[in-house]
Amino acid sequence: QVQLVESGGGLVQAGGSLRLSCAASGSIYRINGMDPMGWYRQAPGKQRELVASITKGGMINYADSVKGRFTISRGKNTVYLQMDSLIREDTAVYYCNTRSYGLDFWGQGTQVTVSS
Question: Distance between CA atoms of 80 and 21, rounded to whole angstroms?
Answer without folding.
Answer: 5
